[in-house]
Structure formats: structure tokens, C-alpha cells
Design goal:
The protein has a domain of 114 residues: Serine Threonine Protein Phosphatase 5, Tetratricopeptide repeat. It is built from 18 helices and no strands. With 370 residues, it is mainly α. The chain is elongated, with a radius of gyration of 26 Å.
Length: 370
């Protein structure tokens, strides 16, 4: 799943219910939802649904609108113009119902509603975008990508669609495509710090370190509490040999969020592996590594590697070998072939009683295990 998709209403879809009545409703649900208006005239049903749409706020009210419009659309002799309007309004109601489900953490049910919304109205860009976010959360990246492309065609001025397509491209490894989409999102919404942060990530992976650092500076000027940007900027400063500045960034991240695991992980890695002795700290490095593992999970291979490096730095080689061995097992199970060779080299060093040290000016891949 991409790191941080944004939906139409900027709800926390990534972070991120009572029974939903789907059409056609069951007999019990029909009875519960039966409006005072009992007419079978499709025009009257559509009008009632329209009136309700003006004040609808909760899940039940949106479900009732869907029910009314389904009744109208099943009627014989409905004029094409009325049918088109009813379908469009039904798509709107399904989309709003899906958004209600998102607020309650019902992602799978929300996806079903967004799919019904698009089926009812294929040009409903909000529903397309919401469906794309839900597809991405469900791991259906190809479908998500198609939806974001459709939104960009229909509503190119909507910045979130460019950002979210960039997130998919980043996940696919298309760094140039990701940077281009993040840049367009920034052009459309230059005050959103997450867009700069995302572009910095892609630029760093492409080796454009200075430009990545500039983007992180801009992101932090816009939001001084963006903890992930502090950590990423700290990692870049480690690469550039600016160790004290890196420590300051990691500590700034923890000042804003003392439970942010990646900050502990990066801080521990630097304190255990820094080539400049005065920045290494055995006691604090071990404490930060253990905190990172506690926050990010016992099966997080990067945290295991950091803890192993901290144990080796403290001279605890049997513990370092055991911890690094666990990391190697996790990496093998997850088929992370690009990281296996380096992990095995570190293990061999610890078996020989040698700690791991970064080069004085490290490359991106040496900043720390990811």
C-alpha cells in the first residue's frame, strides 16, 4: 500500500459500523426505511430523494436516498432525462455513504459503495478518486492507478489525484513519473507540506540529495511538526556527514512525537554506526534501538538490524549475532533480495567480533537498513 494517499475530503484513509442497507434492501430494511411518501410515481420518488439529499448527514439518510432512487429506477416508462438524473444522484449518495464508512474504519464496505457510485455515474470524479484510494489500500494498485488517471482526465485541477498517482508511481519505482506528478500537485497546491515531503523521497531515491533536502526544508517551513520530514532530513544529513545536524533533526522529530518509531530507529543507527567516534553512544544507542523495535514491531527487519548494530557497538557480539540472524531470516522470508547480501555481510562482521561502521560520507543505501 502506498505510504500516504489522500482522499477527496482529506479524511484519514491511510491511517487511515452499524449495518449498511444496500440496494435492493431486504424486506425488513425496506419497512424500516419506508418514507412517509408512499407514492410509486418515479418522479415523486426522485423528488423526495432530492429533497432529502439537501439535509442528509448520516449513514442511514444516505442509504434511504439510495433506496428511493432504486425504486424510481426500477419503474417502467421513466424518461431518459429523469433516469440520468436519478442515476447521478444515486452515485452521489453511494459515494457519501462510502465516506461515512471510511470515517468508521470500514474500508472494505466503503470500497463497495464507491464501486456502486461509479457504476451509477462513471463521470463522478469524487467517487472515482475515493475508489482509487480504497483500491490502493486494498493492494489493488493497477485499479487504483486507472482511477487516478481517470480523475486527472476529468478534473486535472484536483491536486490530490496527482499526488496519489505519484504515490503509486513511487511504489512501482517510476521515480521520474512520481516526481513529475508531485511537482504538478505542488503547482496546484503549493501550501501542502506533504507534497514537498513526497517529492523529497523520490528525489532522494534518485540520488538528487540537495534537491531532496530543499524540498524537506520547504515542507518543514510549512509544517514544523511534520515528524517524518525531520527524520528524512536527518538521514540526508547523515549521508552528507552533518552528524550534529542529523541528531538535532531526530530530536526535533521526537520532541513533536515521542512515540515516533522511525526517529528512534534512525537515531540509534547513527549512534551505533557513525564513523566519527564522538557521535557514537553505546547506552543511548541501545535504548533508542530497543524503543524503535518496541514501537515498530518485533518482526521489523530494519529495527532488528539497528538493534544488532547497537549491540555490536556496545561489544555485545553474541546478542548482535542472534539479533542480526533474526533480521536475515525475516529478510529471506519477505524475499527482500536487494537487502539480503548487506544483512549477511553485517552478520559475518558480528560473528568475527567487528562492529559495523558507515563510511565517512555514506551513500543512500548505507544510511541505514530500510
Amino acid at each position: 500500500m502506498p505510504r500516504g494517499l489522500k482522499n477527496t475530503l482529506c479524511l484519514a484513509l491511510v491511517t487511515g459500523l452499524s449495518i449498511v442497507v444496500l440496494a435492493p434492501a431486504s424486506a425488513a430494511a425496506q419497512k424500516a426505511l419506508q418514507p412517509v411518501q408512499s407514492s410509486t410515481d418515479p418522479k415523486a420518488l426522485i423528488k423526495t430523494a432530492y429533497v432529502k439529499s439537501k439535509t442528509a448527514r448520516d449513514q442511514r439518510e444516505f442509504a434511504e436516498i439510495v433506496y428511493l432512487l432504486d425504486r424510481a429506477l426500477r419503474s417502467d416508462g421513466l424518461l431518459p432525462s429523469h433516469q440520468k438524473y436519478a442515476s447521478g444522484l444515486k452515485g452521489w449518495a453511494h459515494n457519501r455513504l462510502g465516506e461515512q464508512l471510511v470515517k468508521r474504519g470500514r474500508e472494505a464496505a466503503a470500497l463497495g459503495q464507491f464501486e456502486l457510485a461509479v457504476k451509477a455515474n462513471e463521470s463522478h470524479w469524487k467517487a472515482l478518486h475515493n475508489r482509487g484510494v480504497s483500491y490502493a489500500i486494498a493492494g489493488q494498485q493497477k485499479k487504483a492507478l486507472a482511477d487516478f488517471k481517470a480523475v486527472i482526465r476529468i478534473r486535472p485541477e484536483f491536486a490530490n489525484s496527482w499526488f496519489n498517482r505519484g504515490e503509486i508511481y513511487l511504489e512501482y519505482g517510476d521515480l521520474d513519473g512520481a516526481i513529475a506528478d508531485y511537482s504538478e500537485a505542488i503547482r496546484l497546491a503549493p501550501s501542502d507540506p506533504t507534497f514537498y515531503h513526497a517529492r523529497a523521497t523520490a528525489r532522494a531515491r534518485l540520488g538528487e540529495i540537495e534537491r531532496a533536502a530543499d524540498d524537506l526544508d520547504r515542507a518543514l517551513r510549512l509544517n514544523p511538526r511534520l515528524v517524518a520530514a525531520f527524520v528524512d532530513r536527518g538521514d540526508i544529513r547523515v549521508q552528507e556527514g552533518q552528524y550534529q545536524d542529523a541528531i538535532d533533526d531526530y530530536r526535533a522529530a521526537l520532541h513533536n512525537d515521542e512515540q515516533y518509531g522511525p526517529a528512534y530507529r534512525s537515531l540509534a543507527w547513527m549512534m551505533a554506526t557513525c564513523p566519527v567516534e564522538r557521535y557514537r553512544d553505546q547506552k543511548r544507542g541501545l535504548a533508542a534501538a530497543r524503543k524503535a523495535l518496541a514501537l515498530l514491531g518485533e518482526d521489523d527487519h530494519s529495527c532488528l538490524e539497528v538493534l544488532a548494530a547497537a549491540e555490536a557497538n556496545a561489544g555485545n557480539y553474541p546478542e548482535a549475532v542472534a539479533t542480526q540472524s533474526r533480521a536475515v531470516i525475516v529478510i529471506r522470508k519477505r524475499a527482500l533480495k536487494g537487502q539480503l547480501a548487506m544483512a549477511e555481510k553485517r552478520l559475518a562482521r558480528y560473528q568475527q567480533g567487528v562492529p559495523y561502521r558507515q563510511e565517512l560520507i555514506a551513500s543512500t543505501s548505507q544510511t541505514g537498513p530500510r
